[in-house]
Write a structure and sequence with these properties.
heterodimer; A: mainly alpha; ABC transporter involved in vitamin B12 uptake, BtuC; two-stranded antiparallel ribbon; 4 strands; B: 234 residues; Rossmann fold; six-stranded mixed beta sheet; four-stranded antiparallel beta sheet
Amino acid sequence: MKSLALHLSVLAVLCALQFVLPSYHVTNVARIMVLAVFAMGYNIAFGYTGLLSLGHALFFAAGIYGAGLPVHLLEWTSGPAFLTGLVAGGVAAALVGLLALRTAGVSFMIVTLMFAQAGYLSILYFGRWTGGDEGFPMGAVGRQVLGYDLSGETPRYLTALGLFAVALVVNLVLVRSKLGRVMVAMRENEDRARMLGYDPFRVKLAALAISGLYAGAAGAGYAMLFGYVGATFGGIQYSILPMLYVLVGGAGTVLGPLIGAAGMFYLIEAASEVTEAYLMLVGVILIVGVVFAPKGLLGALRKVWPWLP
Amino acid sequence: MAAMILRAQGLTRHFGGLRAVDGVDFDLQQGEIHALIGPNGAGKTTLVGLLAGRIVPQAGSIRLADRDITALPAHRRVQAGIAYTFQITSVFPRLSVFDNVALAVANLRDVPAALERVGLRALADQEAATLSYGHQRLLELAMGLALRPKVLILDEPTQGLAAGEIAGFMALVRGLVPETSVLLIEHNMDVVMGLADRITVLNFGTVLARGSPAEIRADATVQAAYLGTGNAAA
């Protein structure tokens, strides 16, 4: 009950923010919510199942291009384009998982990183269709939802909120489900989980595919809401960012990714006003976080409120 | 003669030059408690690892009832009805006692009964890592039992238990048969002699002797290899 009330009030606050914040920040919060969906997906693999991936940029980019290319090349409308992006993220993650999940730990990180880099280079290589380095603007036909134009502030904010709300509810249901509990069991003690009759490969593959669906949905949403499709989103920093959000907010907590995404978004923005070397800050926070606060903000709060999902 | 629930033939597993298990035949009858004993390094844990599917055999076959399970991976064997409790306690330390057992049951409503059986019901909400060692062993057992296995493999279950806990454990295991057949690795000879219907003695990866507790106690080769003076069981 407490948990339900907490999450409903978070959604209510997010909904109210658009009326009180200045326009610039409304756009920022919309962006944060979409990035938080990406981070929630990362958290399903990393926080709950213990899969430390360095390849999530590939799944995010799969979502962005999965939604962007059909609009760009075939003039699809937003609904089918979003679905293609969602599925592209899930399929990409499942395919990478089929191969990468034969490894674990550091090898898994390296293999996922390699796949993501291969994906990034492919985007550049097939520049004729993908626009390469420069990317392309998302076609207007792909930014119409139910007659609303997503480039407008309010439809954009509400769509981002809707996407975030659905992702949050699915996440809550997942962590309470049998699969959710078995995912945690894999993280905690894979050997024991196997001897309770669970196939580690299948459970981890399922977790990674769900994680990829989240990344795909976030990528598709990002392209549609902010109107740009580009190779940058397949770069290594888009694998690091969700990890950072999750670590800062609290791995294995449902709201941690949102808190981490919001905190880091504004921190990076403040830092980039001061210096161009803002990625240095990202690195420092990663290291300090891992060493001194491995449980993140919500992980620490859980000591006080153990019911936090 | 009772039906065989588990039968292994010619099981072999070498690690480099070490013949950990070397052509062992083994059978477990429906409803019996069968103890596996032998000196340290005799191959007991490797043998049950082969039976449970944690180790891949280099030769030999394993049947569960009428089914050849030699090629099944460990988690499929668990689904087929072989449960294994670890020698070194292996629970989910950061989950509650309840959640640990919840992972083993098909229906969450069965968790309280599974905990009741080993006397841990009052501790259901406690984090597993905070349990005493003896209670962690009981939790491990509760997880094994909650799977409702046909065959339960217990790898040194009484190690680290207090004397009073051992008596309770023996009563618990006696209550499992004949629905469940039990394979027990055990060093405590009072437990072995008190529980086992049959005993298999391993030495250097091969079967040294097999028989009832009385036969094993009287066996001269076993005394020489393992029991030493033969008074250990007294």
